[in-house]
Design brief:
With 419 residues, this protein is α/β, with parallel strands linked by helices. The strands form two sheets. The protein has a seven-stranded mixed β-sheet with strand order 3-2-1-4-6-5-7, with helices on both faces. A three-stranded antiparallel β-sheet has the order 8-9-10, with no helix packed on it. Helix 1 crosses helix 6, helix 6 runs parallel beside helix 10 and helix 11 packs across helix 13. The longest helix is centred in the C-terminal third of the chain and has 35 residues.
Length: 419
């Protein structure tokens, strides 16, 4: 028992040390990287694609920010799920208010039954995209961008070995729902992991158009559930890199309740299992983050029950150091990312004592929520997303089994809750 306790304590603290080292690598890259921005005449003509189903909480702000980019030649390509979708009217109203002319809006005309709705929408845009567009950028409806977003995203593509560029999302640690705090805590780890593995995020992503046509990605979309995770493996195979752009850490102010977050995580883990090139590493990371602390707590309680005070003290000390270490790591990453957010003209929330305490409580809660989501995703064969149901029998064996147009009644009661 004593030997195992010592081994467990060392494993727990060793895993903390590994996470600290990986986070420091990310922070050094964030701080040392310089912005690259091409002159207007050097920037290629770009299509920005936004696919919509439902009215996301900050959709009007998202659309306004995309239609007022500091970029010479670009067109926003909007594909709305249907003309009865609440996003349809919001999009038309926003375009009309701005008097924007650099936008094409259409509804999803062909609903493919062997891929996701988003992949159907992307293929619809590409079927109509002319050859003058050298770059395609992707963005999600929960992303409110700054004026130089597209310029900063596209500029690194001038390097011949860079095939795609990407940013990542950053949540706020405040919110009235525990799901928001748990999502923040989990995303802190996810951002570092995606940076290290070179995994793109579809919410801020640009790729050279010729690569999409030459590498077969378009054909893959025609039978896939997810559009971005596969890119790393495909581009690497063709000798191209995906560059993470540090200035494109995009702030997300949406809320999430715990049940909604668990459903979201189930989908994300399933997408990763199907398309992530380092899926086993993700499983190992989640298991290590859950197994070591969980066993420590169980043994601690058993030691207290058996009145083995010395063993209990060692376990309590190790678990406390581990948890407080993770809290300090979160705060360090928060402080490291804040200059990027402030440079975008965004305001950041002050960290009160109450917020820090919620972050501390969220650490063990995050471990259990993520563990539950991972376990259920391993046996999951169906996906439900915004009222649409898919049956999944493999990465390239997807079947749309239930579809209906999105309705105003499907919108959450709380207008700030993520869809």
């Amino acid at each position: 028992m004593e030997a195992f306790t010592i081994f467990l304590s060392k494993s727990l603290l060793g895993w903390l040390a590994i996470q600290v080292c990986l986070a420091l690598v990310f922070l050094f890259y964030l701080r040392l990287s310089k912005r690259s921005s091409l002159a207007d005449e050097q920037l290629p003509k770009t299509a920005v694609i936004l696919c919509l189903r439902g009215a996301d909480p900050f959709l009007p702000e998202c659309l306004r920010s995309l239609l007022t980019q500091n970029y010479p030649q670009y067109t926003l390509k909007l594909v709305v799920d249907s003309q009865t979708d609440p996003a349809w009217q919001i999009a038309h109203d926003t375009i009309s208010q701005l008097g924007a002319t650099n936008v094409d809006i259409s509804y999803l005309r062909v609903i493919r039954h062997n891929c996701s709705l988003k992949c159907s929408a992307l293929l619809q845009v590409f079927a109509e995209l002319d050859d003058t567009y050298e770059v395609v950028a992707f963005v999600d409806a929960d992303t409110v961008v700054h004026p130089d977003w597209l310029r900063e995203l596209v500029s690194p593509l001038s390097h011949p070995k860079v095939g795609a560029t990407t940013g990542n999302r950053w949540y706020i640690p405040t919110g009235k729902y525990w799901g928001s705090v748990v999502r923040y805590a989990g995303n802190v780890s996810t951002v570092v992991q995606m940076f290290l593995f070179g995994i793109p995020w579809g919410g801020t992503l640009a790729i050279k158009t010729q690569l999409l046509r030459q590498t077969g990605i378009l054909d893959m979309w025609g039978k896939a559930l997810n559009e971005d995770l596969m890119m790393h493996k495909v581009l690497k195979k063709h000798g191209m890199q995906i560059k993470f752009v540090p200035s494109l850490m995009m702030l997300n102010r949406e809320e999430s309740d715990l049940l909604g977050l668990i459903d979201h995580l189930k989908r994300m883990f399933l997408y990763s299992r199907l398309y992530h090139p380092q899926w086993i590493a993700i499983v190992g990371d989640v298991i290590s983050s859950i197994l070591f602390p969980a066993i420590t707590i169980v043994l601690l309680l058993a030691s207290l029950w058996d009145e083995e005070w010395q063993t209990a003290a060692l376990l309590f000390r190790s678990y406390s150091i581990y948890t407080l270490g993770l809290l300090l790591l979160m705060l360090t990453l928060e402080i490291g990312v804040r200059p990027v957010i402030l440079n975008q003209g965004q305001s950041v929330t002050k960290l009160s004592i109450g917020t820090i305490l919620k972050m501390l409580i969220a650490i063990p809660l995050t471990q259990w929520v993520y563990g539950l989501a991972l376990l259920t995703s391993l046996v999951r064969s169906t996906v439900k997303w915004r009222g649409v149901i898919y049956r999944v029998q493999g990465p390239w064996n997807i079947r749309l089994v239930e579809y209906q147009a999105y309705d105003f009644l499907d919108q959450p009661i709380d207008s700030k809750i993520s869809l």
